[in-house]
């Protein structure tokens, strides 16, 4: 604790490790402070499985090209234009190198999963998932000589006139002052801090489930903002998906997510549909449903489908609720049986036949129904009938620190910080004003982590 490092990295996930490795490869001495115990290291990276990178040609694991312009158009669509275009286009361009750089750090790819994901051309999947990817990065960092401390919580930051001086760390039952020439903040958002979420969402936040780590409480983010770093992002915006309502409050991960909205209808506690289940293909569709469910009474909804759809998607960890009739299903879900029967029958009558294909925007739709189902509409009529209860599952929040292309934080007056950099969820709001596209969180973390580490090392050296 008495040694002064060139670069101090706060956080222990993908962004932090990319920064640590990049800084070490640039010749800097590096210390990583991870607030979690070793077993739970890595924040939300433990629960991920793929990354979205631009590439010009097919590869051994990608089925075709995914150009910078197409990536940009996808990002523009999901954010509704709420993104820093210059920074986002820069990230997309840099992602082409990350696809190869990350492999050089020991990470391995595998072919895309099939089914409803529709990601075989755009996203690269980690062999063994996020934990295997994370373990590879830690091995590389440690082999390079990066020092790592677990159960090391940053409790204060000494920042004077935009310059990081030192941090106070709670470690081993004591408080220690750690000095470094440059700081990289990669400690995530505040999604696990229910009280902070309630400041913006109200009491409904009590019904939110946190898909990832319980350690992302936003303490480092709050310190930085309080010390004069410029804020970016809407505090109510986040990466939120509909997950199984039976999932644990924290750390349920990817196995509680549900990919079956396309195969049926979604109703609220009043047994009423409230949104188009066929709006878009999975990578762009799935991340809107968390916020949609959050707006419903008691923040609960139910995905209803029938027998022929059961094996067409990746199931949740929990089995679906099963019944021989819609009325019986309603009873098991605690819904009004007559209301659910009416909703299903009204939907069935509105369905217009077409050629069903869940991998494309097909011609199966409803007519005269509000809200419509614009694609993949099929009658729900073949027993047994099934349902999954779902709640909003937050992955990470978008309130963060503003950065430039060097991943350098900007102070409230717009001037670049002297020696402070950020990567990952803590600055994702620069790119993601709202919405989400599958795998882009890992892209943000890897691209800006690599840059932050390199620039922090250069800053320390100079």
TrEMBL record:
Which cofactor does the UniProt annotation name?
FAD
Highest taxon above the source species: Bacteria
Protein name per UniProt: FAD-dependent tricarballylate dehydrogenase TcuA
The cross-references to Pfam families, in alphabetical order and at most eight, read: FAD_binding_2
Extract the GO molecular function terms from the UniProt entry. Answer: oxidoreductase activity
**Organism classification:** Bacteria, Pseudomonadati, Pseudomonadota, Alphaproteobacteria, Hyphomicrobiales
Q: Which Gene3D superfamilies match?
A: FAD/NAD(P)-binding domain (3.50.50.60), Succinate dehydrogenase/fumarate reductase flavoprotein, catalytic domain (3.90.700.10)
Q: Does the entry feature the keyword Oxidoreductase, yes or no? A: yes
Key words, A-Z: FAD, Flavoprotein, Oxidoreductase
Enumerate the spans annotated as FAD-dependent oxidoreductase 2 FAD-binding domain.
Answer: 6-433
- Note whether Flavoprotein occurs among the keywords: yes
Q: InterPro entries per the record?
A: CobZ, FAD-dep_OxRdtase_2_FAD-bd, FAD-oxidoreductase_2, FAD/NAD-bd_sf, Succ_DH/fumarate_Rdtase_cat_sf
